[in-house]
Amino acid sequence: MSSRFRVLAAALCLLASRVDAQSGRAAQPQIDSAPLLRDLFALAADSMEGRRIGTPGGARARMYLTARLKQIGVPPLRDSLAVPFKTAGRGGADIAGTNLIGVVRGTREPERYIVLSAHYDHVGVRTNQIYPGADDNASGTSAVLAIAAWLKAHPPAHSVIIALFDGEESGLLGAKAFVAAPPIPAERIIANVNLDMVGRNEKGELWAAGGMPNPSLRSLIAATMTTAAVKLRPGHDSGGGHEDWTNQSDQGAFNAKGIPWVYFGVEDHPDYHKPTDFPNRIDPSFFFRSASTVADFVRRLDAAPPARSAP
Fold it and tell me: If pLDDT is split at 50, 70 and 90, which confidence band does 94 have?
């Protein structure tokens, strides 16, 4: 990580707290910006070779993430953080991948769960070019780690499953494996909060999809918008002139099982799925504020979870 980014990371938390104080708005969760950026640069490094499912680069990313989860203090949900799966890929051949599934235990209702997720894989190496996938989705993965660290310091009422999925780029494979054989009864899942591309946007806009198909979550999105540190916009979930993102990332697997979801992400930029999706093209301030906004939504969801009807 460059010295410019290290200095900026050190200043971001102080700036955020001053803005909150001067504006009079409710303080955002104060996530740690230094590891947020450090994790992104590590995951998007050339040594990770684009993190494609089933490759040595993907395995190296998984080793890094496992070490970080242990460092943060996130234990496995079951016997191991690593949960292997095997499934048929788009071409019919079996694909083996590995999800990382941990948990921050709730203090009051530990048997009800929020699933906080991001996919850590990307598209790998194509025509001898590494696709680093800084925004897609080192940004979402790093934000989940930062929010997990905040949750460890501010224990939630409900348990929060920290799910880092493999194989999203190959057809939401890791998320589909998770919901096909959930490690806890599916009816105990309050909602899925999924992050995919939260690191940059020229307009300063972060989208929250999921309110239209999940009316019980709409008021929480609206409440988060009132104090969001970014331009948080609802949509991309029902047409209305915008592309429907319901099945564009791992929340699609939860949607297919009738599990409520909210997806946070930005609209495509010129480096989407290009070898130019470099970490130094991330907007550190926007990235930090996006992660803080999602943390605020998770806090609100934990404080006032909507009731789920029995399947």
Answer: confident
Task: Note the pLDDT tens digit of each residue in 39-88.
Answer: 999 999 999 999 999 999 999 999 999 999 999 999 999 999 999 999 87
Select from 3.40.50.1000, 1.10.10.10, 3.30.2320.30, 3.40.630.10 the CATH code of 3-303: 3.40.630.10
In the prediction, which pLDDT does 238 show? 82
Domains of the chain by residue range: 3-303
Quote the pTM value. 0.92
Sign of CA dihedral 38, 39, 40, 42: positive
Q: Which pair of structure tokens corresponds to residue 310?
A: 């029995």
